[in-house]
Amino acid sequence: MTLFYSKRDLLFQLFENQNCLELTQIPYFADHSGETFRLVLDSAEQIAIKSLRPLLTEMDRNEPQLIDGQIRIHPGMKDIIRQFGQDGWINALFSYAEGGQQLPWTIHMAAGFIFQASNYSASVFPFLTTGAANLIRTFGSRELVEKFTPKLYSGLWQGTMALTEPDAGSSLSDISTTAYPTDKPNIFRIKGQKIYISAGDHDACENIIHLMLARIQGAPAGTKGISLFVVPKNRISGEPNDVLTQGIYHKMGYKGAPIAHLMMGSSDGCEGYLVGEPNQGLKYMFQMMNEARLGVGMNGVAIASAAYQASLAYAKERPQGRKVGEKNLNQPQVPIIAHADVKRMLLFQKSVVEGSLSLLIYCAILSDKIAHHLDPDQKNQMELLLDLLTPIAKSYPSEMGVQSTSAAVQVLGGAGYTTDFPVEQYYREARIHPIHEGTTGIHGLDLLGRKVLIQEGLAWKLLQKEIQQTIDSSKEFSELDQIRGKFEAQLRRFTHGAAQILFKMNQGPEEFLADATLFLEATGIACLAWMWLKQAQSAQKALNTGATEQDFYFGKIETARYFMDYELPKINGLIERFHSKSYPTIKMQPSWF
Known about the structure:
The protein is built from 19 helices and ten strands. It is of the alpha+beta class. β4 and β5 (187-198) form a beta hairpin. α16 packs antiparallel against α18 (571-579). The longest helix is centred in the middle third of the chain and has 37 residues, at 281-317. The protein starts with 6 loop residues before the first helix and ends in a 6-residue tail after the last helix.
């Protein structure tokens, strides 16, 4: 069986390149060690191989159906969801007092990467529940926590995030689902509809608990008037709560997890329970959304990883043609991995997967430090840096994960376009991630229009400082001079180009933000190059200290060289655009298309 991820690389990223063990110095994580982290990852791999992976194709071919008002999913998911609950995955992050394991989010994300790479559709159910339960435990009343979280933790109940509406996609300020006060404190009648709700209804759990955004009757317009509610499909008593599944969406990929269209209050009988304070819902939801955005980036990496491993195995086994210049047809054919262009496609995939994984683990470690750091100044700086990196770490792996998976299909040639191999499924599944949790365009606006400018550009300066520290520390290794030199030269061009786009603020918001997505793309390339210099440095250090796995480390250094030679130069066209004073995307009229 072809594995769907590189365990060796994951351990390298965690323990050699990013040093996740420094998290054990934080009192909350003090009971953990390298041994416990590895045990968690080993356990994740076993669940992935034995439970999730066998259902990969079945869940794709036999997608959920809406029958008699309820969505039916693959029958194997009931046992899988229960297993996640019984084994403590759903509340692993939470405190011992809550029955959790006080596990760092970094390790939880790494385990999630394994699950997602094995079977993305199957992996989403428990982690959606984790997000919903975390909102209740963080912002909900004691009564809500006691009523809802135990069965969420157990896997008996499914948690969801219900945000999107037909006329309010990314524009949450326009949501119209309404909460009407009742004579009972903090209990409201909910009326409205939600669409594209992942795991919004299914038959593998006894109840579905929606964390839902709605506007209390008479609340202020826009985002200031949005509140957060717990809206169960069935009330605690077991009676239906007037939450109806109006439809199911049939998708191009990621088919095993249902996406529901929900109607609330059709008979004026839907109860919702206020979480926290009125009109603070979007603030609360952003706790989940920022974590989810990094999670989406990890999803994209996981699927690209599975596609890369499949195409790598195929390339090593598939004989075709002979080396360029070999005219003797009596010579045996060579495996296609011997051809330079196939190695180029494999290097591209390796650079995207392992570079993105490095960035996401860096962000996860930052998040764990922020959650438990006591020094307010250092915590503020880490928060600013993570806020800046979040749209990058969500968008680059999502967008490039699609291209990386496309390259996997190309490696297999015609075989890759058939259902005989899994890469066509991966390609379909990869495409959702540039859309999930905010489109790439939304994140471009967020990065350039908000994050770069916060506190007079402090976050941008902090990022440059972090990158410079990696450059400086890499000077210890003369073997990396060429790799580092190319990165430094391009980084100077990029920094100058970024300054040019910032000057456009004076021309007005439309001109300033017209190329925000391109700015996000360029920043993503620069950050991946930074991560590859960091990995090359870790690899060279291992080689210099007598590491025996020389092939692994040489592979790291050569992939870093590939990224600097092939991917980093793509930034030049984007930089040229930043200097331009022409705006066809603004000037073009709808009637001209």
